[in-house]
Amino acid sequence: MVRFENVSKKYNQLEVVKNLNLEINEGELVTLIGPSGCGKTTTLKMINRLIEPTSGTIYVNGEDIRKQDPVQLRRGIGYVIQQIGLFPNMTIAQNIAVVGKLLGWSKEKAAARVEELLEMVNMDPASYMDRYPKELSGGQQQRIGVLRALAANPKIILMDEPFGALDPITREQLQGELKKLQAQLHKTIVFVTHDMDEALKIADRIVLMRDGEIVQAATPDQILRNPANDFVASFIGKDRLLRSPDEVKVEEVMITDPVTIEYNRGLAEALERMRKSRVDSLMVVDDLGSLLGVVTIKDVQSALNRGGTVGDSAAPHPIAVYTGQTVREAVFIMAKHNVGYLPVINDQNQLKGLITRASLVGILTDVLWPDLSSSHNVFTSTTKEAS
Asked: Considering the entire predicted model, what is its pTM?
């Protein structure tokens, strides 16, 4: 659908796009992303000749765009920008149908298309057609900008950070609406963004650029699992990378402030601490923070009448995992001993945190490996989780 062959763009001696080779398939939503000045917006604008390449060739539908009239080319490509660009003196209906008017549509055809598009995004035509842009919220205005780009039913739509100026909630809503529209319409969309979360959410393929060159072009899953180099990994962000459980250490996913109690405290105090923290067990430590044992609500209730200290009722030498061990090791220890939690200790036996089923689920849902299926009871065990 869109193909770049050895495309470069220079401004005097500054080369902002360097020998770009990229093919965007029909019906694909591709995001261009990268740091400021990487060439992503220039790349987008060369597709509809708002910017002319210095060298190389861009093909749309197999035809060299330099052989096409730029005005006719642009009328066949939808374009959405961050500033929206609605005409303030035109109604919403007139704004949506502006390209249709240029193409010679009849009033009846234009009105029917406006109604169809407004209904597509759940905006009642009777309520919105005759309004003016100033009467709409920012999110509603941006929806109209998208509908205007769709009005003439172009096969290609260019979107230059269309949601960048919106508040996070509205932005997320519009991202969801775009995905639904794309599933319905199957347009070829080239979408510039600076937000990796946005790219991961909406893209079929992410093209990450740096200094005018493509560093990696891959699906969201591929780019998360196999970043091409340190720059890609850094740009994506450590928290987003789908690493193997053999690479993730327990201290990265543990609860860092588990509820504890000193061994010499009373049982009534232990019960009250459980109640306030809404847990059913406490890590028992000494004055230096060394792990001595675990006391459960059942232990405390059984010994409450006869009195004594927490240390008298705690189960000593709990099964634990050391800092530096991997998530894989922690999961198999939990499965082997059928426990719902694991204290995390260092080489000096000091309590550093707590691994629970819940703290593992988030990471394991993305990086779970096939041979773990035999250990499924880690997640289905009826043993109540401590925290």
From this structure: 0.64
**DSSP single-letter state for residue 65:** G
Phi then psi for 116, rounded to 5 degrees?
Answer: -60, -45
Could you tell me if 269 and 261 are in contact, meaning their C-beta atoms sit under 8 angstroms apart?
yes
- Contact in structure between 31 and 40 (CB atoms under 8 Å): no
Contact 193, 217 (CB under 8 A): no
pLDDT tens readout for residues 87-117: 999 999 999 998 888 888 999 999 999 999 9
The dihedral region occupied by 348, where left means phi > 0, alpha psi between -120 and 50, and beta the remainder, is alpha
Q: How far is CA 77 from CA 71, 73, 100, 147, in A?
A: 10, 7, 13, 13
Q: Which domains does the chain have, with CATH numbers?
A: 2-236 (3.40.50.300), 250-380 (3.10.580.10)
- Give Rg (Cα) of the chain: 29
pLDDT tens digits along 194-203: 989 899 999 9
Burial class from Cβ neighbours inside 10 Å (0-12, 13-18, 19+) for residue 348 reads exposed
- Alpha-carbon distance values, 255 to 259, 287, 356 (Å): 10, 20, 8
Q: How do strand 281-285 and strand 351-356 relate by DSSP bridges?
A: unpaired
For the stretch 342-363, pLDDT in tens is 999 999 999 999 988 877 765 5
pLDDT digits (tens, 9 = 90+) for 118-139: 998 889 999 999 999 999 988 8
